[in-house]
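[Automated response] Your request has been received and processed.

Submitted sequence:
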Amino acid sequence: MSQPTVKPDLKESLEGYPGAETDNEAQQEEMSRKYIFLTIFSCFCPSYPINIVAFVFSMMALHSYNEGDIDGAKKLAHMATLVAIAAIIVGLLIIAISCIVHFSVVGSVCFLPFNLKALLMFGR
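Generated structure:
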């Protein structure tokens, strides 16, 4: 069986078509890395399942970019940004709710090992 021969000037002729410069420029463009810093910042918020998902999306975007899939990397970076923003908002809500509960209940709760109110009521 005869194997097809590939001519070396076939590849050179494909590289010389008019759209080749724009394809090379598109592959060489830098992707913004702001989403990585945002997802790392979101890891400090107390919404752990959500911010871990954001961090995983950002690492997947970085991996896709390193593999050469620019469009997939941009989509994953956008998803990582959205999930990181959601994690920050949920974290701030958790902090606000815990502060509201703490400062509204702190006057009625005794932090001693025993409840003084119960001892006073029992003594009567």
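Summary generated for your ticket: The two ends are 107 Å apart (CA to CA). The CA atoms of residues 5 and 32 lie 43 Å apart.
If you did not submit this request, please reply to this message.
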